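[Q] Does anyone have a clean structure-token version of this?
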Amino acid sequence: MSLQICHCGWSKITTYHGLRTHQGMMGCTAKGMRIPENQQFTTSPKISYLGPPIKIEEPFFRKPDYKSDLLDIGLTIHQDLMGYASKGSRVLETKDSLRKNPIPPPHQNYRPNTAVKQENVFGSTHLFPGTNAPAVTQPMEARGKTKWNASSVGTDLDKTLGFPDFNTSLLTPTATTQMNRQSPEPTVKERSQPVFETPQGFQRTASKSRRALDFSTGEQQAKQERTKADLRQEIHARQRRMVEVRSSAGACRDYLDAEWLQIDNVFSSVMNLVQDARQEALQPLEDRRREVEREAERVVQNLQRKIATLEQAVGELSNNSEFQPQVSPRTSPETNVDTSLSFGTLRAATLTLMGDIQQELEKLTSVELKRIPTFAVDVKLDPTTAHRSLLLSPDGKKVRGGRNDAEVPNTAERFDTFGSVLGLNRLISGRAYWEVEVANKSGWDLGVTRRGAKRTGKLVMNPDNGYWVAVHYDGEKYAAMTAPPVRICPKEKPTKVGVFVDYEEGLVSFYDVTAQSHIYSFTGCAFADKIRPYFSPHQQSEHNDNPLVICAFKRYS
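[A] Here you go.
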């Protein structure tokens, strides 16, 4: 419970429901209208000065009288609600004027249309905070006396209503309120205005709140738009990535299909060659079998005819004892079958077949040369292993034979008899590939060697000693340094040689990169240690003065 005050002057310590009951019984509010609890005397009317200069006849500051101010507020509320003041007018009364001219009770019969407009000495009209309803008042002589219950208004009321305890005096002009009895009565439009509206201060606050809200909302919308833009960019990036992936996958499928078709054609051709060789090897046997069968059938028929003749003779002897048949020899050439076999060997056929198959399988070299550059490595020469007669380029990519021996330290790692040099690269697993330019040279060695292989003194280069090397010598001769060496016959003189090593498979292969052909392969290699590239440009001569050049990687299509 708290102090409840009605705009008619009634006050009591009760609940808000009690105040509403009083207003309903006394007719203080129109039917269907109510005053929200949060608007019960929360602000005091705003006074603005628009009139002529004020004459001060008494001290300008005085001690605030909350009771009089409260009565002013109550009167204003009552006039606003009951329609006793014209639109825009305001009655500003002090305690003395309220005592001299008390507000008539609400149950008396008044004529709001004859009300006059009242102005305060400041020249401003009064509206109750939060409403545009006109304040209409009756002439002073028409007012009745009413009891204004203000017994509970005082210090306790001040605390209850939350008025601040301050000593600043209120401005109270000495001029008297003048009444204009000729004020026009409110128009229909004015009467249609709602009794309670949003206070101006609240409107300003709401406007600021709306501006703040608009700013916050705009900022939020801008942030959302930026987020949307970022998300759209992410979507577009992923869509582009999808296109790239699909394009890449499609290109890969096309490449795989093309290679699959190429390999399938090669092996289909090989299978046709094998099938033809098989048929050719089996054909003599088939022919001989049919020949023996025909000869056996002929002999059998002859024997059957002979048997029939003999049986006839036996029958005639039984019927005629004097009959003497002629008996032929028991064996004759007609009854013999030649079952001898005279076939030659299959060596010629198999050699022909192997040659044809090898020639057909050579077509796979182009496929291999498309694959192995994937394993290309950057090979450089190791000067600590080079024979003293060799000249190496500063970048370690070229080597050539020299005429004079250079002064270099003798170590177990350096070749002292063969004009050779090793690469810095060491391979202990996986695959590696490099290419070497060998144009216009009459001799060279290329391959790999085991790290611990012998390098000093007289060398025997073969896999057993840790060397897997192909050599070119005497201008046009080629050999693979096996035990014993194997002659190699490339289709044409290579100008660029590719060396491919597969450590796990034990494979060392040599390719003519220019002709896209296979030269030779060491298979089943037991490396058993790290291996290093091996080079020898051979001794410099009139026809062998060009260097060996380790080429940069290039993918061949």
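[Q] Thanks! Anything notable?
[A] The first strand starts at residue 2 and ends at 5.
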